[in-house]
Amino acid sequence: MKKMNVGVVGAGFMGKAHCVALSNMPKLFPDAPYLPVFKTVCDIDPEIAVDFCVRFGFKGFCTDYMDIINDPEIDIVAVCTPNDSHAEIAIAALEAGKHVICEKPMAITVEQSKAMAEAAAKAFEKGKISMCGYQYRRVPAIEEAKKIIDSGAIGQLTNVRAQYLQSWSADPRSPLSWRFVKETAGAGTLGDIFTHALDIAQYLAGDVTELVSMVKTYIKERPVQEGGVDLLGTVKLGDDAKKQAVDVDDEVSILCKYAGGAIGSVEATRMAWGRNNYITIEVHGTKGSITWNYERLNELEVCYGMDDEDGARGFRKIYTGPANPHGDVTWNIPGMNIGYGELKAIEAYDFAKAVEGGYQPTTTFEVGYQISKVCDAILKSDEVHGWVTVE
User: Fold this and answer.
1) How many Å apart are CA 102 and CA 1, to the nearest integer?
2) Which of 68, 125, 315, 364 has the maximal Cβ count within 10 Å?
3) What's this model's pTM, rounded to 2 decimal places?
4) What is the domain class of 140-296+298-335 according to CATH?
5) In this model, does residue 350 exceed pLDDT 90?
6) How does pLDDT run across 105-115, given as a tens digit for each residue?
7) Within a 10 A sphere around the Cβ of 117, how many other Cβ atoms?
């Protein structure tokens, strides 16, 4: 099997996710076009870089990402750093002739996202592929929902509602990591998880064209985290810990209009006690409805309203398996189920097939740029307390 050398920038949570996915991709997909080889991992903390290098079997490590950019043997760069460095790393990698997969959100400003999309377009002319890591649209159940919608089976879409609810930052003792600092994160819940819900909604219903928003911060300060590792709320600090102001959002809600003609809403919060990774989508059409919940990600519920008689109408449950998109990663029998690791492997597979085929995957940098424009409109709408058109 052909081999492709990989450089990973950022040895935290997302670096781990990408490496697990890259390792599992050729194991789960028999037609994987290449075998990823872990060449170099980069992290600004040398101890973290060394530990990651050993645990994941990299050939080497570095603390300056330019060592990866300048290495002619590296074919693919995975950008898994905090948001403020996405643009500079991804653009440098593309200009150096690498294929690039970059975690979401694309960047911390619309201008940076635009520059990334332009660099990706130029690199594509030279055969280099880029992808933004919006993996949730690749859940087999969501792809099956897309098939059903495109077939016309539930008619013209009328309403699309999406949610992403988490609770890991609801406790004020959760430390202030980079995710709570505008300088590094760009935004809070808006960039961190709202963008995932927005991407699914736009994948199914078309781009958001107009919106009105509410953006809220509830916990105004948090205890300062020691060390650079993002703990995602798994550690609580005491009352005697030094505190620092939070300058990003905790919750975002919008009402919106979609290009396909539907209306709806998208909301996200990291303050919802009892919700862990609760992503939901509900789609209504003139002939039926679809609903899905990530915490039961292998199940899709569909109501073909026009086909059922009064008194017998309701949702039927589909357990995704081999007959559904990317079903060959679902262990051959519906109900055996997949999880986050397999989902990231699907993302890695889609990227690999795009590299092999010389085409751009569905979550291009242009898609990431469009999401950035919606997020910018959300912040503007909250400022003016009114409807805003997405530029």
Assistant:
1) 25
2) 68
3) 0.96
4) alpha beta
5) yes
6) 999 999 999 99
7) 22
Other CB atoms within 10 A of residue 311 CB: 6
pLDDT at 88 over 80: yes
**Does the bond joining 72 to the residue before it have cis omega, within 30 degrees of 0?**
no
Sign of the torsion angle spanned by Cα atoms 178, 83, 99, 142: positive
| One-letter amino acid of 106 | M
Q: Are 369 and 113 in contact (CB under 8 A)?
A: yes
Same fold for the pair 3-135 and 140-296+298-335? no
- Give the model's pLDDT for residue 99: 98
Confidence of residue 309 (pLDDT cuts 50, 70, 90): confident
Give CA 251 to chain center in angstroms: 17
Distances (CA, A) of 298 to 139, 330, 335: 8, 9, 7
What does the block give as tokens for 36? 């990823």
Please name the fold of domain 3-135: Rossmann fold (3.40.50)
* Three-state SS letters, the chain: CCEEEEEEECCCHHHHHHHHHHHHHHHHCCCCCCEEEEEEEECCCHHHHHHHHHHHCCCEEECCCHHHHCCCCCCEEEECCCHHHHHHHHHHHHHCCCEEEEECCCCCCHHHHHHHHHHHHHHHCCCCCEEEECHHHHCHHHHHHHHHHHHCCCCCEEEEEEEEECCCCCCCCCCECHHHCHHHHCCCHHHHHHHHHHHHHHHHHCCEEEEEEEEECCCCEEEECCCCCCCCCCCCCCCCCCEEECCCCCEEEEEEEECCCCEEEEEEECCCCCCCCEEEEEEEECCCEEEEEHHHCCEEEEECCCCCCCCCCCCEEEECCCCCCCHHHCCCCCCCCCCHHHHHHHHHHHHHHHHHHCCCCCCCHHHHHHHHHHHHHHHHHHHHCCCEECC
What are the tens digits of pLDDT across the range 156-179?
A: 999 999 999 999 999 999 898 899
**Separation between Cα atoms, residue 131 and residue 285, nearest integer Å:** 31
Q: Is the pLDDT of residue 203 over 70?
A: yes
Domain edges within the chain: 3-135, 140-296+298-335
Distance CA 120, CA 111 (A): 14
Give the pLDDT of residue 241. Answer: 84
